[in-house]
Each structure stands twice: as C-alpha cells, then as structure tokens.
Amino acid sequence: MDVEMADATEQASGPSKTSKVPIPTVVVDENHPFELETYMANYTGRIAIDRLVHIISLAPSIAPQALQLAFRHIQSLRDPALYQVVLSAYEQAASLGSVPLPAVNDIATVDQRWVDETNAKNQNERMKLEVELKTYTNNMIKESIRMAHRDLGEFYKSVGDYTTALKHFTKSREFCTTNQHILEMCLSVLEILIEQRNYSHIPTYIFKSDAALDQSTSVPENSKAPVGTKAKASAERERYQTKLDFAMALSQLGQGLYDKAAHSFLKLGPSAKFDDWAGKLVAPGDIAICGTLCALASMSRSAIKSRVLENETFGVYIEHEPYVRDIVEAYMSNRFKVVLELLERFSTRHYLDIYLSSHVHDLTNLIRNRAIVLYFQPFSTIKLDRMSTVFGWSVDEVERQVVSLIQSGEIQGRVDSQNKILKAKQMDSRAQLFAKALKAGSEMQSANRKLLLRMRLQQADLVVKPPKGQKPESAAVAPSSQMSQISEFSPLNE
Amino acid sequence: MNDPLPTPPLQTAAAEPPPPPDDPPASDVSNSLEGLLVQITSQDDYEILNHMLRIFAPIEVRETILGSLLPGGADPLQALDVKRNTLGILYLLSARLQVNAAAAPPPQFIEAFCQDFDPEQARLAPERVTFLAKGILQLGQQANEAIFSVKALADLLVRFPPSLHYLTPLHALFMTACVANRLFASATPILSESITEIDIALFPDLHYTDNLVYHYAGGFAYAALNQWEEAEEFFEIVVGAPAQVPSAIQLEAGKKLILVQLIKDGKSAALPRYTNPNLQRLLKNTPYFGLNRHYPQQQAQLRILIEKEKETFEKDQNIGLVKLMLEHAPRWAIKKLTGTYLTLSIPEIGKAISMEGQDEAVQRIILSMIEKGEIDAWLSMDGIVTFNDSPPTVPTRILTRTEIDVALKEAQRQAAILSALEREIGKSRDFLVKAARVKDNDWVGPGVPDEDLMFGVTPSGSWAEDA
C-alpha cells in the first residue's frame, strides 16, 4: 500500500510539473460552453481520472460534478489510491478557488469496502505474478520470463505504480526474441510515458519501435519469402504507424515544437488504427483540436488548405469537433475576428485538455500573430482603427501587438503613433545591397588584419605563457609588470 | 672573472662572429672612454664597431664607463656627429641616461638625435634603442617634461623600424607614456598605422607583453578620443592574442572591449573565436558581462547593477567608461524605436526609453542625435518626432562610381596580399617538411604513426621548459 501512497504524491506533482506557466482558473459559462458528460464519454481507464483531476484543479465551477464522475470511474479501475488523488485535487481547488465548493461528503462518498477489497485483490495478484516470475526465472524459459515481466508491468501500471511498471517492461526487453515482442514492449512503454506526459523520452522508444518494424519488414525480403508475407509486413507497419506517429506528435507538442507537431498530427492514419489507444489515451476530437491549432500556429495558408481542409483522413477527426472546421474556414477567409472569438469561446475546452493545456496560451498568441501578419501583408499603409475593427480589439491593443511584432521582425513596417497608421517599410534593395557589400568588405579586411597579426605573433612565438615556476593549470592570470602601471591610469572623460 | 657571472639581459641577441684582426685594438681601448671615442669616429664598418661596443670593458664597469664624461669634464657626445656616429651615440647616450642621469645631455641634443639618427646603424643594436627609450622616459619623468619624452619617443619610433607596420618594443613604451600623460592626440599618427609585421630577427628583445600593452594602451587612447571603432579593434586584438594562459592585460582589455562595444553598437558582440577559453570564462564571471543583458532599454536595472558593482568598476578604473556607456543607453534605445515607429511624441519616447517626465532631457538627446546624424528625423513644434524611412546605416543615395572603384581596389589589394602570403607559406621550409611528412604517412599507411608521435612530443616538451 505504501507504494501506492508514494505514487499518489507523485501523481499530484505530475501535472504541475508539465505546466510551468500557471494556468488561470478556467471559467465555464454560456460564452465558454463545456459539456463534461459528453466530453468524458470519450475516455476510459486511467486517463479519464487524470483528465478529471485536471478539470477539478482548473475549473472549480464544474469540480463537484467532475468529482462525482471521477468517483464513479474509479470503481471500474483497480487503483484505490486514485481516491486520494482526486480528493486532494478537489480540496486544493476548494481552498484556492474563489467560489465556495460544497464539501466532499455532500457529493460523493468513498466506498471503503471496495477499497479494501481491491487492495486485497491487488496484493494477491502481485504475489501471484511475482511467484510466477520467480518460477520462470528458475526454469530459464525465456518466453515465459518475458511474459511474466510483461504481466507484472501491466499490473503495476493498472495500480498506478509507473516506475515499477517501467522497470518491468524494460526488463522484459532482455527476453524479447522477436521483433514483434520488442514492438509490444515499446508500445507499452510509450503508453506509460504518454500517461505520465514524459514527452522528452517518447522519441527514444519510437525510434526503437521503428527499428523493430524495419527489421520485421526486411527479414522476409532476405529469405525470399513470397509476396504475401511482404504485404503482411507492411500491413503490420501500417497497423502501428499511426500509434507511433501519434506518440511523436504528442511529444513534439509537449516540447513546444508546434510546426513539427502539426506535421505529425496531420499525417495520422484513420482513427480505427488507434485500436486500444482510442479512449484510453486520446479521443479523435483531441487530435482534431491539437492538429488544427498547431497547423494554424505554424503553417502557411496554402499548407493549411492542402493539409487540413483537403485531408480526408484528418477531416474525419474534425467531424468530431465541428467548431474546429469553423475556425479554419474563418481563418482561410480572413475573418480573423471570428477566429479569435472562436478560440476564446472554446478556450475552456482547450485548457481542460491535459495535453494541450499548457500550450493554449502560446498557440493562441502564435495564431493571433500570424493573423496580424497575414492581414497586413497586402497593405502598404493601414489605419490602426481599421485593424482594430477587424480583430475586435481597441486601437491601443492593436498598436501594442503590432509594435511587438515589428520588434520581433515579423512585420516589416513602422507605426505612425500620432496618426495611428501602420506603414510598410520601403526598402531600397539596391542601396542596401551596396551598403551590405561594403560593410562585408571592410569587416573582412579588419578580420584579415587581425588574423595576420595573430599569425605573425604565433610565428614569432610571442605567446602569453604561464610565468616561470608556476604550473600552467594554476596560472589563471599571468601577471605582468606593466599591468600595474596601466591600471593606475586616471579614469576617462571625467 | 667575466665569465661565471650570469648573462645580463642586454646580451640576449646572438653576437656577431668577431673578426679576429680587430680583437687587439678592442682590448687596447678596453677601459678608456677616449680610446673608444677614437674607435667610434674612425671605424667605418658598423658591424665591427657594434661588436666592439658590445664587448667593451668588463661587464660590471661597462655601463659606468660608457656613461661617464671625458677627463676634464668634456661631454664625449659633443664630439660625435649624430648621423655618422649614430651607433656610438646610441651606446653612450643610453648608458648616460641610465647611469649618470645627473649629467644628462641637454634635451636639445636628445631631440636632435631622435630626429636625425641613422636607422641603419641603430638597427644593429635594437636592445640599445629600447634601453635609450627607457632612459628618455625616465628623464622626462624626473624633469616633469612628459611632452618632451613623448615627442622624442615618437621621432625615435617613426624612424627606427623599416616601417611603422613593424612592432617594436618602443611601441609599448611610447603608448604607455602617451596614455599615462593623457597625450592621446600625439599617439594617433602611430596608431593609425596598423601593426602587421613582427620580426624577431630585427627586434630580438620583443616580448609578448609589448604587443598586448601597445594595443591595450592604443585602445585606451582611441577610447579617450571617442573613436570607438578603432578602440574596439585594438581591444579585440589584445583579447584575441595567442595565449596559453590568459594574461591580466587581456582580461582588462576584455572588460573594456565589452564597454566599448556597448557604446559603439548598443550591444556586445561575441569575443573573437580564437580567444583563450579560460579568458572567456573569466570574462563571463565579471559584472561587465551582465551589463549586456539590460542594455540599453532597462535603464533602471542597469543603474542598479552599476551601483551594486560600483566598487569593481572603480577598482578596474573603468567607471568613466561605464558612465559614458550609461549616457549612451538612451541613444541606443531611441535608435531602436526608429525601426518601429514613424512618429512619436517626446513623452512617448521618454516612456519607451524609461526617462519618463524628463521631456527636456529627451529632447536634448534627440536633437544631438539628429545633429550627429545618428538618426534621420525631424522634430516639429508640438514635440512630435518624425523618423525618416531609411535606417541610418543604409546610405540614402546610391554610391558613386569612384567610391565603388576604391572599394574594389582595396579588395583586390587584400586578395593580393593573401595570395602572396599563401605562396610564401607554400614554399617555406616548415610547410614543405610538414606536407612531405603527411604525404609519407599516407604512403606508409596508418601502421607507423610512431615517427609522427616522436616529432610531436619532443619539441613541445623542451618548449614548455624554456617557457
């Protein structure tokens, strides 16, 4: 039991670690609709609890509802420690939140009998699996050892002890005999990593599975097997590719590499390919949202058109969240105000997604910046108040945004702050080229001069050396008699 | 009695092989100044004369005798002709200034000598010239006549090396004197000729500090004259000078380099690539490095930082530069604004460069920037500044043909210098030996790397010792 308790604290600290920026409390109201029941219907297993915990800590207004839901879900799992996690999240939300939350006991009760039963059951199961492993190890049956490790890994995962689970999975690798086994192991590890949101480790296991897949496809070729096996091998690849791509996309999103993440999300296969990961890790709607937001934040207009709107496979994902299509279409037809309004309206949905949560702010900023840049592109001058009506901001807000974009070099223009006009820079490329060439020339000459002098110094062996009697490593600074004289100079320009 | 003594520092240069027939007369005059004087005036072969002067008299009394007066109190220098007997005067005068400063020759004589001496002869005894220069400096210090010694040294320096592109030990002495006495303007004619040649054969007493001190002091002088570009280059030379361990001068130069770059460009650039890594680390730990982070916009933080590290800056004698840098901060902040805005009112500018409420000061800065051509802008009556479109770094007009021709010629000249250098290296012995060895190894294959290893180890081992 104490293993599980330790895990509970780990769990609680997990999400706060991934989201470095403190995320504001998320409001759920008429303008920011969020249907908890329908949303949660997409998820099963542990991830449902994780998501609910996330929701409890972010959105106090629906926390009680989420708590009830979580308690109901816990019964279908086998990790009683989750009660603790959910409760502590709720209590924290209650203590921090401005809205008073009803006490836990009023909403739901911990089913103590179930807890005891499950604990006992877990204990038995663990004993059983460990005995099994021991027997197999003594008998040195490779395949059985592997399976025992795998089962133990699954067991520990289900009770939430990820570290031990990882240990068993990686251990099982030593006993893998076929590429299929390696692949299976990698996918299990990936599952854990994704649940833990340990994004930086994901690519390692993706590469490992890739290698395993490559081998399993290349082996039949060498043995000159009939075409049938080859086709089977590529089918094998197809079967896992989507999972691997998804893991990759998630890790890129997690590390803030939005452009890469967009590409990965957009090349995912149909949702059927997720088989057991669908619901357990991700819902198709999430993929639509993440993929679209990343694409809007990083891709060019033509790329968005061809890869998002004309992508049939991705279109199926978008069907799950129709408002995403509205955003993209508004973006493509330059109705940026609508884009921003929709983004704001569904920000609740975005913030409450565990993968997306810490990136919503950055992504929204990026999309807004791109929108401003796109909007300004065809103009040589434009009044700021016209921009303010298009984007739905005050003139000051527009000015602030534009100025920051100019300073980051994304807009080639300048602001006439008296008349509130944004004016594109007029470049005299010819003069600039000349100036640049001349500057490069003089820089080159000065560099040459310095290098030649340095070469001569070295030829003459006029090199700063450690003073006599001092060991080179201890001589940090070579003293010189002239130094004292130099540093006695009176200060400049007094 | 002569031999067991340690060699005096002056005799580092390889002695010319003494021609045997000249030995007897040399021993004849061995201890008398008069005899020497006769030799100086009669001997026409300067190499023989130089050798004779070099081994004149037993070592302990040599300088005393050289520096003494003739019996009867007559000055031996008066009997010699500056042009014809440069070598003799060089020995006598330098010894006199060192040993017998009381009976120093009149300044006019020294001046005349410095202006008129025969460089060919002087180059035979370069260490004596250094000796003389030090003597002149001492004299100037004692008599409180810094201008005199700086001027004499300048004359000496201009005529002594084959060209001003050669580094001599005099360079460091001269520049230190200039800076110490704040005679920066007199340094510029020398400074403007950049050093490109180092010749150990001509100036055997060159030391690495000569290069460092000359360029450090030169950078200092340029900084004092507000010629930031040149100052930056000089400090960069010091920082980038070849070093096994960083020298204190390099560290000081690095600090000043950062300040100069902040003043000149509004940001500090990376150090030269070949800078000693230890030096880079040392510099990163100084408060100077931290200045870069806040410059130029966050003046409040800048002021706090400077106040906190005031002692360090004062100890390093850089407080003047630091203050200057702080003064320049608003200018850089304004310059950045020109890239973003077309028009701004003075209070808005003040807000942007964190000088809120000091509208008059802001206006003064803007006016002076416009005057100096740092920004292209105009100021209307109601306090609105309009920045013109082109950034000041780009010339508004197309260059004339002659300007382009000049630039092209300069580039061609550089290319010629480089290709000549390459040919020179290509035919040099060192290069050929190395190239041949690499080739041999290729032939033999990687099986016998021992020879190369041997070669690699032996010289570096002995080298570390004589360092």
TrEMBL record, chain A:
Endpoints of the signal sequence: none
InterPro entries for the chain: PCI_dom, Rpn7/CSN1, Rpn7_N, TPR_rpt, WH_DNA-bd_sf
Top-rank lineage group of the source organism: Eukaryota
Domain PCI: 272-429
Keyword Ion transport carried by entry: no
Subcellular location: Cytoplasm; Nucleus
Region (Disordered): 1-23, 464-494
TPR repeats: 146-179
Composition skew (Polar residues), residue ranges: 10-19, 479-494
Keyword Cytoplasm part of the UniProt annotation: yes
Keyword terms: Cytoplasm, Nucleus, Signalosome, TPR repeat
A GO cellular-component term linked to this record: cytoplasm
Record family assignment: Belongs to the CSN1 family.
Official protein name in the record: G protein pathway suppressor 1
The species this protein was found in: Neolentinus lepideus HHB14362 ss-1
UniProtKB/TrEMBL annotation, chain B:
Subcellular location: Cytoplasm; Nucleus
Domain COP9 signalosome complex subunit 3 N-terminal helical repeats: residue ranges: 77-276
Record region (Disordered): 1-30
Keywords: Cytoplasm, Nucleus, Signalosome
Biological processes, Gene Ontology terms: ubiquitin-dependent protein catabolic process
Domain PCI: 309-388
Protein's UniProt keywords contain Cytoplasm: yes
A single cellular component GO annotation: cytoplasm
InterPro entries: COP9_N (IPR055089), CSN3 (IPR050756), PCI_dom (IPR000717)
Similarity comment: Belongs to the CSN3 family.
Protein known as: COP9 signalosome complex subunit 3
Taxon lineage: Eukaryota, Fungi, Dikarya, Basidiomycota, Agaricomycotina
